[in-house]
Amino acid sequence: MSKSKKLKEKLYPLKKWLYSLFIYPPLKWRHTDYDHYWRHRNLTARTPLNSFQKKRADLVLKYIKENSSVLDVGAGNGRVLLYINGSKPLSNMIAADISRDVLEMARENGMEAIEADVSKLGTLKNTPPSDYIFMFEILEHIPNSEEVLEWAMIKAKKGVFFSVPNTGFIFHRLRLLFGKFPLQWRLVPSEHLRFWTARDMKWWLKELGYKTFKLHAYKGAPILNNLWPSLFAEGLFIYVPKND
């Protein structure tokens, strides 16, 4: 890869953030569902992980044990499970999602697929017991985040991994400074219903009774995201181990 191309790749996030300070995406609210959402992202069974998904999967690999079973809620095409399975073989991979389109992709990738709406816990009650449950970029989309996390902690045998956007990220703060609410949606303004900063997340988990957890702020502004993650990291990754 040429130096100019590498430089463009490094500068692309800055361009995207600056664009988001001043420009709203097109407003779409009619005739949208999660199948439409995934089609908007041009997802296929073979679409590789993006940089955010890969970073989250790499963080999972720090904690997960080999030969574990995993239920991935909101799994999309299941590539996160495949990536983890490539480094630490899993005994069972189950993909749950509301979109029938992506469930077909998950089946193509060789895993069990279950249609479920995470905002309606009744649709998840019959999922097989698993060592770990993944809920990446899920809790911010639903009003009953506390209830869903409680369900996951009861259902999982060993622990729960989840992630949410970091509303404390500097570009979200700057949007407020310019009189605009932090922009954290791709297609429909109602996509995100809940919001957390790193400090909020620590308080929230402790209030819910989860005293032992690992929180990693990730992505965002290179170098600065390590020096001051609550301000310069774009996402929050959390692992809550199951108490024995």
What portion of the residues fall into strands of 2 or more residues? 15-25%
Spatial ordering of strands, largest sheet: 3-2-1-4-5-7-6
What composes the largest sheet? 7 strands, mixed
The CATH topology turns out to be Rossmann fold
Cα gyration radius (Å): 18 Å
Question: Can you write the helix and strand succession as a string?
Answer: HHHEHEHEEHEHHEHHE
Question: What can you tell me about this protein's structure?
Answer:
The chain has 244 residues and is α/β, with parallel strands linked by helices. It has one domain (3-241): Vaccinia Virus protein VP39 (Rossmann fold, 3-Layer(aba) Sandwich). It is built from ten helices and seven strands. Strands 3-2-1-4-5-7-6 form a seven-stranded mixed beta sheet. Helix 1 packs parallel to helix 7 (170-177) and helix 3 crosses helix 4 (79-87). The longest helix is centred in the first third of the chain and has 20 residues, at 3-22. The protein is globular and about 45 Å long. The mean pLDDT is 90.
